Amino acid sequence: MDFQINEEQKMIQQAARDFAQIELFPGVIERDEQQAFPEEQVKKMGELGFLGMMVDPKYGGRGLDTLRYVLMMEELSKVDASSSVIVSVNNSLVCWGLETFGTEAQKEKYLRPLASGAKIGAFCLSEPEAGSDATSQKTTAIDKGDHYILNGTKNWITNGNSASVYLVIAQTHPEKGYKGINALIVEKGMPGFEIGPKENKLGIRGSDTHSLIFNDVKIPKENRIGEDGFGFKFAMKTLTGGRIGIAAQALGIAAGAYEMAKEYAQQRKAFGTEIANHQAIRFKLVDMHTQIEAARLLVYKAAKDKDEGKNYVASSAMAKLFASQVAMDTTIEAVQIFGGNGFVKEYHVERLMRDAKITQIYEGTSEIQKMVISREILRK
Q1: What local confidence, expressed as pLDDT, does residue 2 receive?
Q2: By the 8 A CB rule, do 173 and 141 touch?
Q3: At what angle do helices 81-88 and 349-358 cross, to 10 degrees?
Q4: Which bin fits 312, alpha (ψ -120 to 50), beta or left (φ > 0)?
């Protein structure tokens, strides 16, 4: 077993770290307060290849593996989780889904601009009554021969307004249950496609989260991904990989909070010495560091499993389950170490604490991860 990353991987890590410090850190508090989408920063991430890291170069991507992708995600998330989730959705859910299951025509038309960062994608599964229960799709795609008529509402969609390409999960054959669900490619601006108001969120406030409304939207048959009825399997397979990206995001949030708390503890004085010299604070830092190291190994293992073609259903779910809990625990303790300053926005850790919570919810709640893991371990 080799737990070290090589020089090439370190270069990717350093490039992401430099970008996060130089481009994301300035203005991150203001973007959070104003719920401002990081438009310029996303454009630069596209130019650097961050939005299509795992896509084959023949479609405009970087052609890198999942491990390099999570190294990049971790570094971005240390500073700005709003920006990193934009990257995660575009890479893990949209680009990967299209490259793995799309037709050659779909890849040329949609994957290429998504991989290069010329366009941004969104993954549209959740609904008002279909969050964890993804089989309960109320959005319908009625088969009309050479096209579908799409009707319904999608909720909590990351990149909801900034995206140009939307992968929409909808029910075509209700009598077949989840086997009657399809995945359709929808373009922004199609007649009948409306974008609802922006959600006012607890965390990742720079990410634009919207509801989407479809009123008799005509979708060409060639925009269906996979065979008729493949939509639910498409969503589940795509989310399995997406969880690795969110696990890396949670890891980054935790690591960012820890690094800030450690530096603060070595500077802040109380009772005549730096607070890092007090056992109560030292032990907090020990617990934070240990949990982060354990989470990092789980995330890296899930990435390696995926890269090596192994079954990564359980490993990705375990990585997300554990890393998201570590993100919550670590950011709460970071605020505690900062004391009163931790409750003030200018010190960043309260934002990281707010950002951490969503990692336990989106792309499968922690409770859903336990269901996934239990199925896998009891199958053996």
Answers
A1: 82
A2: no
A3: 30
A4: alpha
The answer to whether the beta carbons of residues 155 and 203 sit under 8 Å apart is no
Q: Is position 99 annotated as part of the catalytic site?
A: no
Question: What tokens appear for 146 in the block?
Answer: 């050479």
Largest CA-CA distance found in the chain, in angstroms, rounded:
78
**Residue 3 confidence class, pLDDT cut points 50, 70, 90:** confident
Tokens of residue 188, six digits: 């922004």
Binning pLDDT at 50, 70 and 90, where does residue 89 land?
very high
The Cβ of residue 160 has, within 10 Å, a number of other Cβ atoms equal to: 23
Contact assessment for residue 288 and residue 330, using Cβ atoms and an 8 Å cutoff: yes
Q: One-letter amino acid identity for 324?
A: S
User: What one-character DSSP code corresponds to residue 220?
Assistant: E
Quote the tokens at residue 202.
């607890």
Q: Rounded to two decimals, what is the model's pTM?
A: 0.97
8 A C-beta contact, residue 24 and residue 83: yes
Q: Under 8 Å CB-to-CB from 268, ≥6 apart: which residues?
A: 274, 275
Q: Which of 278, 260, 259, 279 is nearest to 270 (CA)?
A: 278
**Neighbouring-strand partners of residue 186:** 166
